[in-house]
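Deliverable D2.4 — example input (structure tokens):
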């Protein structure tokens, strides 16, 4: 596929190098057209090296090829990132002062703008009008992410992560309606991995969780445009790029991090495998075998119920229950008292979370595996939803369901 990648004059231009890499590694032929202002942030040599194509922003270069007409006419897709307030205004009013704006006027295929600017600029009536004008003409304009901006400010206006822009671009080309990034502007906190409860300086109580499901959820949420915070306990896989990572070890540390993170989260997903119990006492020295062959006695105490606390905190701090979506995970096995779903239904009612993702676990099931099968239960009483496949595929289904539930309860203005 032939892609024109327009680069606007914002500090987020440096992130577009990663987007270019995603396009080229997927086998697409990319021509980069930086604005003159953008070359103050990232030089043309970088774009030429990464794309393998010559770079220009002037209509007077290679005049014999009539680039200001040819590039837009031949492009299967045009992506503009970062789309600054200035660039959106020029595109909305049909200006043609450089190669990029000429190309936008000639584009026959889909056009995707990924805005990035200060919050007040994004929310200004002039910018909002320009965005609506572009959307009215058929262009796709993503909602910016919410997060840290230039300097100390934070708010909507941050460039979505390159992976999210790439996913939106591919969806747009394929004619799918999910290119709009359903979680743009949302903040999602996800716990992942397994907690470890120390017995002494060298031993701990742990579990078989690899963190693969939590990481896959973080990737899916990031690709849906969300601002993702990953509370990472012990994991066998690295955290993904483009997410905030908070390292924890014990259930008590995870509780502290989760309660703090919930304060500004639209969604909290508790996918970590949290130890139900911890040793009542932790030895300062290694517990050794005794000469009299006496076996040590280890007393366990309950860990706090983090999911239940999150629900209680949510319900006590919002005026209308449901402004924050809380998702729990249940790793269940059947027994003489009931099957997996029976235990899960009871847990859903007991915890009070909005969604419960149920795994049937065992020695060779779920933990550490690359595939999984889940059932999503809803406190609203809607029909259970099944999802199976790789953890990436299942995570995409879970995030899609979360986006649906979240926007139904608390739509964005």
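Example output (designed residues):
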């Amino acid at each position: 596929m032939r892609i024109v990648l327009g680069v606007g004059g914002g500090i987020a231009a440096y992130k577009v190098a990663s987007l270019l890499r995603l396009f080229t590694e997927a086998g697409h032929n990319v021509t980069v057209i930086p604005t003159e202002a953008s070359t103050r942030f990232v030089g043309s040599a970088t774009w030429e090296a990464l794309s393998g194509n010559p770079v220009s922003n002037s209509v007077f270069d290679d005049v014999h090829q009539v680039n200001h007409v040819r590039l837009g006419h031949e492009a299967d897709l045009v992506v503009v990132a970062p789309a600054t307030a200035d660039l959106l205004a020029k595109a909305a009013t049909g200006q043609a002062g450089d190669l990029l704006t000429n190309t936008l006027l000639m584009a026959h295929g889909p056009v995707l703008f990924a805005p990035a600017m200060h919050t007040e600029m994004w929310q200004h009536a002039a910018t909002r009008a320009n965005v609506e004008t572009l959307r009215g003409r058929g262009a796709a304009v993503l909602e910016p992410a919410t997060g840290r901006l230039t300097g100390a400010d934070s708010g909507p206006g941050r460039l979505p992560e390159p992976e999210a822009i790439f996913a939106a671009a591919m969806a747009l080309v394929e004619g799918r309606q999910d290119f709009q990034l359903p979680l743009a502007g949302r903040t999602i906190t996800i716990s992942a991995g397994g907690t470890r409860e120390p017995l002494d300086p060298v031993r701990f109580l742990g579990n078989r969780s690899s963190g693969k499901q939590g990481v896959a959820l973080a990737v899916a949420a990031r690709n849906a445009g969300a601002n993702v915070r990953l509370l990472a306990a012990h994991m066998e896989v690295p955290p993904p790029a483009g997410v905030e990572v908070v390292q924890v070890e014990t259930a008590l540390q995870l509780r502290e991090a989760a309660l703090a993170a919930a304060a500004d989260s639209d969604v909290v997903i508790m996918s970590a495998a949290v130890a139900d119990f911890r040793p009542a006492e932790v030895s300062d020295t290694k517990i050794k075998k005794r000469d009299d062959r006496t076996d040590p006695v280890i007393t366990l105490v309950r860990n706090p119920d983090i999911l239940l606390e999150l629900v209680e905190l949510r319900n006590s701090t919002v005026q209308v229950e449901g402004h924050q979506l809380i998702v729990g995970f249940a790793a269940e096995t059947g027994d003489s008292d009931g099957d997996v779903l029976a235990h899960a239904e009871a847990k859903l009612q007991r915890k009070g979370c909005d969604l419960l993702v149920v795994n049937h676990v065992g020695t060779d099931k779920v933990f550490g595996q690359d595939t999984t099968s889940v059932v999503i239960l809803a406190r609203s009483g809607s029909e259970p939803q099944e999802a199976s496949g790789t953890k990436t595929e299942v995570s995409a289904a879970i995030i899609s369901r979360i986006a649906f539930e979240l926007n139904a309860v608390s739509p964005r203005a």
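The mean pLDDT is 89.
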